[in-house]
Amino acid sequence: MFIHIRNLAFNYQGADEQTIKDFNLTIDQGEIISILGESGSGKSTILRLIAGLEMPTSGNIMVGDHCMCSNSTFTQPEKRGVGMVFQDYALFPHMTVEENIKFGLQKWSRKEKKQRVLEVLELVNLQDYRKRYPFELSGGQQQRVALARALAPKPKLLLFDEPFSNLDADLQIRIREELRRILKSTGVTSIFVTHDQDDSQALADRIVVLRSGEIADLGTPNEIFGTDCSFSERLAVKPRVLSRV
Amino acid sequence: MKWYRSLKTTMNGWTILSILIVSFVILPNLSILVQFFSEPNENWLHIREYMLQSYIQNTLILIVFVGFFTLMIGTSLAWIISAYDFPMRKFFQWGLILPLAIPPYIGAYTYHGILNYTGTIQTTLRNQFDVTVNQDYFNIMNMPGAIFIFTLFLFPYVFTITKAYLARQSTGLIENARILGSSSWRIYFQVVLPISRAAIVAGVSLVILEVLNDYGVVKYYGIQTFTTAIFQTWFGMGDLQSAVKLSGTLMIIVVGLLILERVMRGRKRFSFTTTKVKLLQPVQLKGRQKWLAFSYCMFIFLIAFIIPIIQLLQWAFYTYEQFFATEFLGLIINSVSVAFIASTIIVVMAIIISNFARLNRGMLAKTFPKVTIIGYSIPGAVIAVGVVTLFTSVDRQLFGFYEWLGLEPTLIMSTSIFMLVFAYVIRYLAVAYNSIESGFDRIGTNFTEASRMLGMSVTKSFFKVDMKLIRGAIFGGFILAFIDIMKELPLTLILRPFNFDTLATKAFQYASDEMIHQAAIPSIFIVVVSGIAIYVFHHVLEKE
What we know:
The complex is a heterodimer of chains A (245) and B (544).
Chain A: E1 3-10, E2 20-27, E3 32-37, H1 43-51, E4 58-63, E5 66-69, E6 82-85, H2 97-102, H3 110-123, H4 139-151, E7 157-161, H5 169-186, E8 189-194, H6 197-203, E9 206-211, E10 214-219, H7 221-225, H8 231-236
Parallel strand pairs in A: 3-8, 3-9, 6-7, 7-8
Antiparallel strand pairs in A: 1-2, 1-4, 4-5, 9-10
Chain B: H1 2-10, H2 13-36, H3 42-83, E1 84-85, H4 89-95, H5 104-115, H6 120-129, H7 135-138, H8 143-169, H9 171-179, H10 184-195, H11 197-213, H12 216-220, H13 226-236, H14 240-265, E2 283-284, H15 287-323, H16 326-359, H17 363-372, H18 374-377, H19 380-404, H20 417-443, H21 446-453, H22 458-469, H23 471-487, H24 490-495, H25 503-512, H26 516-543
Parallel strand pairs in B: 1-2
């Protein structure tokens, strides 16, 4: 297993209830996982815990052979080798597309940087937009730049926080297909959170359904959605035996 | 193990520096509190028995009346300018902030100069119209006069905060009231004043803190307040211990007022939870109403800015030749250099604490911003007392070290410019902090987090991303601190090294020595620099 999350728990300061309760998950290398849940279910918090932007109250996170977090250790986000595409993309407004992508390549040589920028821009089909500033791009283009920027340093794991929430419906369908193609071509392990079951179904190899900070269901899109009862009904039923956790 | 993990993760350079800075801010206040409970001496018993009551009474009269009048003028102007369109409205939007460029002590001696027996008005009446007036009507050097001066030059605090609130936050309520057919008076008293309560309380609190901080006006007009009493006890009686006790009492009053502000503001904040900001559309006034609104704004602008400026210019015209000499240049260099050094330190410190507070959770991150802004609430004279007692004890501790260096064991730190800069930093840290914090609030934490996910540390993220995105706020914070320090009087008067004068101290000294014409040039310099800063801050930076 490439990623191993065990007994993860978290609560925000001052909150009475735990936001994440006893979360367990293992992920294979190159797998695309979707964490699906309603607002407030804790799905973005899990992403932030994996990224190192929050510190869990208990539990372990292993990426490859490296322990990112346990009761005695905590690796800072910048040292985890994990990439993230934010919900609002968080492209640095004072930098061009090229500068945004180069930002994560600080330890690379100038030649390598140039080469890598061209590679990832080609991957997301934005070769002609190198010198543009983020505000000069459409929503879809910004999203692709954010993806290129996150992919550029060749992260071990890529995280997406509601990647399609700022896109209109047509673009959303096109981009998620393109995203799956890109992710599969690079072979990067990915986790994305969404509240949209169509996104999960189209993109993910496996889906984690989250309810009130706990795993309510886990399986392939077919296993999750392939039955007659609706998704909302399934959310209401008790968790199945999570054989693959 | 978990606490060790948390400690190791949060204990970085930002945290350590923040702890150090906050300790610096707290230390002088602590030294006052500690000495406040020391055994009282005879002076203090005398002050408490015979004088304290009148200090409290005068201070209360000042803050109640100035608070009331600034509230009425500030909110009414804010309402007229936010809700109605009339000639020169756009100019008044920032023009009515300009009186803040005139420090009240300059306003005080300027108005005294205008109204006294040899002043412009009485001289003109005597020479041109052969009218001699009753001096009682023109004597401004009393309590009502001080209230008039403070109101005139401090109302912009209430005006700006209320205007910002009305223009952006109250649109729905005011438009509803209009649709329901309420008259504008009714809307003002029944809608505007109640809904703007939080903004008004904040504005009036700033005014009150400025009044409590003032030394120049009350000293010049001969009104005994806490600040003048601290000066008198310290320098007149040479009794620092009683000065500390007076300072402690004043601190208790200030803390009481701050608690009262919190209670009055209740759970209300300046903004609603919605992020959709709809600007209030001003209604076009016609006919008599249009000119009434214009006249009201123009009248306040004239008496609070134009008239004192014209008077200062006239006096400056008499004396400018004396002043464009090396002495004046020296004053400018002194004022600008201390203000520049202190503002730079302030901005750096404000950045460190605000960046620490926004990127961390926990008790320290919540407490530090509150402690940082304490200094602005505490009157300059009190900070001065705290800083002097602190530096004197540091000097005593260092006597051995001075000897080891081959220096005479004497007071070195507590007679140096370093002590003045230190005091400025404590007093004005809040000014830059608020500006920088609001800059950070605007950009949120996403850019920093994105940068960290791309392999940059917190510090590198700050320099490569955050700093560039909030440079307007940093610049704004610097300007505000710089201007406040340029105008500052009580701290500078107490803590300046021997023979060190700034434009403010020199202007005040000339005015106190009845050399009012000579006071004009340094005063104008302060007003012009402050005016430019206000223009840049409210006109240019707000647009940005």
